[in-house]
Amino acid sequence: MIYSSFPQAQYQARRAEIDAAMSRVVNGPSYILGHEVVAFEREFAAYVGVDYGIGVASGTDALLLTLRAMGIGRGDEVITVSHTAVATAAAIGLAGATPVFVDIDPRYFTLDVTGLEAAITPKTKAIIPVHLYGQPADMDAIVAVARRHNMKLIEDCAQATGAAYRGRLAGSIGDAGCFSFYPTKNLGGIGDGGMVVTNDPQLAESLQMLRQYGWRDDRNSHVLGTNSRLDEIQAAILRVKLPYLDADNARRRAIADAYDRALAGSNLAVPARRDEASHIFHLYVVRTQERAAVQERLKRAGVAAGIHYPVPVHRQPAFAAFAPSGGLPETERAATEVLSLPMYPELDEAMIGQVVQRL
Ligand SMILES: *Cc1c(COP(=O)(O)O)cnc(C)c1O
How far apart are CA 176 and CA 171, in angstroms? Predict the structure, then answer.
């Protein structure tokens, strides 16, 4: 069986280093917010090219705590897309704010800026573009709208660790960048984890308080905080993996190139790449109107293909109340046509050959 993703392969490939890192924590002085988290926050922020990194428990919490740290909540509106992991919209709702969904550009599966201005009201406080599948959204245009309307810009980078837009890394362009280290993400832990990056020292300080009971160094609660800490063991594992990330992303791109070549001229539409960005292929997503048949035939040949995402967020029960009255035609169409082919750096030539042959 060829899985659509297989994070254990990465552990097996770097087993000695990862085991040593875990052992270092287990035999070390502190299991929570110790040396490993502090070092990883510094290393990750430097990698993205920003001043501050604040480790949190998940990508969902990265988004939620960023909204809270910005003072966004009840009575406020936040614009995002419906063609995304539900966590993007859940974070907005959990903050107490209202998610406002705009449609996607069907070429790139990211926020379509032509619908953005029309979605803005006096209550709009922020925009959360999602760099979906590993490709940055249309950031020049989105930054311009956010500036013009004085709105916060929060990048959902959960699928785009290491992707770049005009030479800047995803997460360094907006007011904050939110990352997930869920095991299948491009930089994945062996468990949950997340990070917020920013150049804003006040936002960083608020996030440090919010992730741990509202504490400052005096261990008094200064704001209403939660417990959303990045685990020391996850940080140690992620420190092992970060130096390999660019090579892993290059390997994903090489696999994408092989798929592109194999599918040229077929009735499967291959993913379009923006000239001004580097796509790091968290997922390699084709489009076809015969998705069910293609998926079933691949499955019978031992190849797993996933669907990201079969039901748009605004069509799911918890978010139906936020569905725009006219619907979201491109989002709804994409949900019926997208198919994610196997994609992870440890796929070898024989496996790629097998997928390509089956296709
Ligand atoms: C994975 C993901 C999240 C949530 O990250 P978790 O670590 O699972 O909470 C948010 N947004 C997008 C686009 C994602 O893919």
Answer: 6
Q: What is the DSSP letter of 342?
A: P
The predicted-structure confidence for 316-343, as pLDDT tens digits, reads as follows 999 999 999 999 999 999 999 999 999 9
Q: Is 309 in the pocket of ligand 1 (CB under 6 A)?
A: no
Which contiguous run of DSSP H or E holds residue 155?
A: strand 152-156
Secondary structure in 3-state letters for 270-315: CCCCCCCEECCCCCEEEECCCHHHHHHHHHHCCECCECCCCCCHHH
Instruction: Look at residue 218 and give its three-state secondary structure.
Output: coil
Q: At what angle do helices 201-210 and 59-69 cross, to 10 degrees?
A: 120
pTM comes to 0.98
Q: Which residues of the chain have pLDDT under 50?
A: none
Pick the residue whose CA is nearest to atom 1 on ligand 1: 158
85 CA to centre of ligand 1 in angstroms: 6
186 lines ligand 1 (CB under 6 A): no
Torsions phi, psi for 64 (to 5 deg): -60, -50
Q: State the Cα–Cα distance between residues 176 and 184, nearest whole angstrom.
A: 23
* Structure tokens belonging to residue 139: 């950031």
Task: Give yes or no for a cis peptide into 108 (omega within 30° of 0).
Answer: no
Ligand 1 within 6 A of CB of 156: yes
Q: How many CB atoms lie under 10 A from the CB of residue 272?
A: 12
Minimum-distance ligand 1 atom for the alpha carbon of 132: 13
Mind listing the pLDDT tens digit for each residue in 212-227? 999 999 999 999 999 9
Which is the closest atom of ligand 1 to the Cα of 180? 7
H or E stretch covering 264: none
- CA 143 to ligand 1 centroid distance, Å: 22
pLDDT in tens, 12-22: 999 999 999 99
